[in-house]
Design brief:
four-stranded antiparallel β-sheet; 20% strand; 2 domains; five-stranded parallel β-sheet; Arc Repressor Mutant, subunit A; 45% helix
């Protein structure tokens, strides 16, 4: 049986539309129309993934509060914001709260399903690496593949699942990893070279925010990247 997905959406028709599509793909779906209803249910049992609207009835930032509540309960729980609010500041704030993804309505069901399946594939692969006992610790780097958490010098770095998959692919081996192999690690289908370069840039920035002298991700020009702390 597939995972449980919670949808917190105040529009009944939209909620039913997304819920039915997810059920058609074998997921268990729980539907909630406001913050109070959702958090009451989450106090009893957490879903495997949550899809949140931001404005819930008159509660204009209700989805943000649900996200904050879920992250307090389980920081590794994946959250997707699905909302009509497409302002860049809203997106930045949602991602800073720890959401895995932020999609503006309307979004195609096919795309949404792919994003959800992509996350679960990344988590499964990360757990497999952990179960195999490979490279869950490298010097100042600590990786918890089960919860998809990353720590550098004992401070947590909040990586997206895609960034976590790329980092795991690099630390799993001693040699450089090609762009093609990093693309495969993201499990997102068609990904351009420049997209990987952008993810690497974001990963480096997150490490440097904690450690300004961080230089462990080496560029191998014309090939890919390598995790190497000298």
């Amino acid at each position: 049986m597939k995972q449980t997905i919670a949808i917190v959406e105040d529009d009944r028709e939209q909620r039913a539309y997304y819920a039915q599509a997810l059920r058609d793909h074998g997921y268990q779906v729980k539907e909630f129309e406001d913050r109070e209803q959702a958090t009451t249910a989450f106090a009893e049992e957490l879903p495997d993934l949550a899809i949140l609207d931001i404005a819930l009835k008159s509660d204009v930032g209700g989805g943000y509060e649900v996200c904050r509540y879920l992250k307090q309960r389980d920081n590794s729980l994946p959250i997707i914001f699905l909302t009509s609010r497409g302002d860049e500041l809203d997106k930045i704030y949602g991602l800073q709260l720890g959401a895995w993804d932020y999609q503006s309505k309307p979004v195609s069901l096919d795309y949404l399903i792919v994003r959800i399946e992509s996350f679960f594939q990344i988590r499964q692969a990360a757990c497999q690496i952990n179960n195999d006992g490979k490279n869950n610790k490298t010097g100042d780097l600590k990786i918890n593949s089960r919860t998809m958490q990353c720590f550098w010098k004992a401070e947590e770095i909040l990586l997206t699942p895609t960034e976590f998959a790329i980092l795991s692919a690099m630390v799993e081996v001693d040699e450089a990893v090609s762009i093609d192999d990093l693309i495969k690690a993201t499990r997102q289908g068609v990904v351009e070279d420049n997209t990987i370069n952008t993810h690497i840039l974001h990963i480096r920035k997150k490490f440097k925010k904690i450690d300004e002298h961080f230089e462990c991700i080496k560029t191998r020009y014309g090939f890919g990247y390598q995790w190497l702390c000298e």
